[in-house]
Amino acid sequence: MPTYRAPVKDMQFVLHDVLNVSGSDIPGYEELESDFTNAVLEEAGKLTSEVLAPLNVVGDTEGCRLENGVVYTPTGFKDAFEQVKEGGWTGLDMPEEYGGQNMPYVLGTAVGEMFSSANQAFTMYQGLTHGAASAVLAHGTDDQKAKWLPKMVSCEWTGTMNLTEPHCGTDLGLMRTKAEPQGDGSYKISGQKIFISAGDHDMSDNVVHLVLAKIPGGPEGIKGVSLFIVPKFLVDDDGNVGARNGVSVGNIEEKMGIHGNSTCVLNYDEAEGYLLGEEHKGMRAMFTMMNEARIGVGMQGLSQAEVAYQNAVDYAKDRLQGRDVTGTKNPDGPADPLIVHPDIRRSLMDQKSFAEGARAFILWGATLIDAAHRKDDKDADGLISLMTPVIKGFLTDEGYDMTVLAQQVYGGHGYIEEHGMSQFTRDARIAMIYEGANGVQALDLVGRKLGQDGGKHVMAFFEMVKDFCKENSDDEGLKDFIEPLKAASKDLQAAGMYFMQNGMKNPNNALAGSYDFMHLFGHVCLGLMWAKMAKASNAALAAGTDDAAFYETKLTTGRYYMARRLPATAMHLARIQSGADTVMGLDAEAF
Asked: CB 240: neighbour CB atoms within 10 A?
């Protein structure tokens, strides 16, 4: 059975050596002293490695079941959920007035990585609740917040997001679910939603669905969509759960992975619902939840790569196969361990350099969210808006690829279920699809985010990279990082310039290159993170440390990324500059 070890030390390095969170002027960050964050992360690590990780394979093999209208979660999930709730983990970064602990989002993000690595399917129950609660917090009335948030923050009641219907996925303007006004402020919701993660289960007293639907007589298409709170059980004015609402589970989807999460078909038959936000402004309210969810999904790409990598390393050190061509390393055994072979090292270094770079990237992104929310930093808000499709798309694509590499280390043993490696690959696959498929993320990045606010935010990113390179250009200890980062950043700017010069006359020139641009951008972001981590590591070594090996390892891993992974930016640029003709050259009938 696979195991999981929370990377507390690496998280502490990023939070304190690289991001210097306790020295930030973001309100609440003054509490993030190293001893405090270490205590929180150690406790989270203990819970995730000892309680949640052993249930991962249980959820995968048992799955959820629907019996007589009731959804049952896998063995052990309910007890584990109680432990998570009792520990206050579900409301770590939620407001105190609703029962949360009001910790910064960056700390919640670090904890969230551990939870997802240990058991992604399980963690989705609380993760979706967090997103739903955030939407209510941002768009609900005072009465709605008081009624729904305390029990959602504690996860006594869980939450979902209901967008997709059988005939419409990305194009939500086609939805048919209706919301009929009742004259008393409530609505009757009727329709069917599919692919609803955590749609129903036996771990909470109520499920609060956030449902997109159309009010008759409203504008056509997406402009006519509104968002509604639709509980599984009706709730009276005193907060007591009452009669069953008109929502039922039609089926549990049979999926490739995340078997421990109940992905449901939900049927709404004149279910009572309550408008959240303004009429016909449902997508604005839902995007509060979706943007948070997209960053969380990016984290899932990292989390599955991390746990798969950990197990691949263990196997590579233990499995004896062949001899080192440069000389025997295990003379007392019949063969040397796999890890002596260069191709295995390449695979492990790909995985290690991605996971550590991605961790820094996503925690940096979390500080931008904190700056936007806690100090109303408009520039930080614009920058994380730009980064969201990159975090979601690039990290999940690459994260999935890393789970495949980890599986490959096992050879045939990775393909059979005995070692559990296929679960990481299967679970990681969904992250490339839900919360907006990665092709849509790329279109959003190029079609909307690049030009947002007149291109202000992408230009700010270019300046950030340029300033870092200039400030450290004379540092010989960073030469292996600064020069590759400069080259990669120039590739990114050249790609943006190509879109400006060629996208207007033929939009397909931009759209055909959007996926490559998302990956190019992602590599530059990780390159920047590795340069920052290298600077922090050099500083620690220069100051004197009792753990020089950690920082030397960090530098070696970073050099690998800059030399072996970052040059992919040139390939992506070449593809982008080839334009749309090769992509769109065939008529549809020719396929």
From this structure: 9
Structure tokens, 43: 């406790």
- Say if CB 561 and CB 357 are below 8 A apart: yes
Model pTM? 0.97
| Cα–Cα distance for residue pair 307/128, rounded to 1 Å | 22
If you write DSSP's letter for every residue of 281-335 in order, what string do you get?
-HHHHHHHHHHHHHHHHHHHHHHHHHHHHHHHHHHHHH-B-S--TTS-S-TTSSS
d(CA 76, CA 124): 16
Pairing of strands 206-214, 157-162: parallel
Instruction: Determine which one of 272, 292, 356, 435 is catalytic.
Output: 435
Return the closest-CA partner of residue 427 out of 137, 123, 65.
123
- Catalytic annotation on 435? yes
Residues 21 and 29: beta-carbon distance below 8 Å: yes
Model pLDDT for residues 26-85, shown as the tens digit of each residue: 999 999 999 999 999 999 999 999 999 999 999 999 999 999 999 999 999 999 999 999
CA distance from start to end of the chain: 44
Asked if 427 contacts 498 with a C-beta cutoff of 8 angstroms, the reply is: no
Average pLDDT of the segment spanning 322-338: 96
| Dist CA 119 CA 26 (whole Å) | 31
Among 239, 245, 293, 308, which residue's Cα sits nearest to residue 272?
245
In DSSP terms, which residues pair with 210 in a beta bridge? 161, 229
Cβ neighbour number for residue 83 with a 10 Å cutoff: 12
- CA distance linking residue 232 with residue 267, whole number of Å: 11
Q: Which amino acid is at 420?
A: G
Q: How far, in Å, are 95, 283, 365, 390, 484 from residue 135 at the CA level?
A: 13, 11, 20, 22, 41
If DSSP codes are grouped into helix, strand and coil, which group holds residue 218? coil
Q: How many CA atoms lie within 13 A of 191 on its CB side?
A: 26
pLDDT higher than threshold 80 for residue 394? yes
CA distances to 235, 288, 485, 548 from 134, rounded to whole Å, are: 20, 7, 36, 42
- Quick: pLDDT tens for 212-266: 999 999 999 889 999 999 999 999 989 999 999 999 999 999 999 999 999 999 9
pLDDT, tens digit (0-9, with 9 covering 90-100), for 280-299: 998 887 776 677 788 899 99
Reply yes or no on whether the pLDDT at 515 is more than 70: yes
Predicted pLDDT at 538: 98
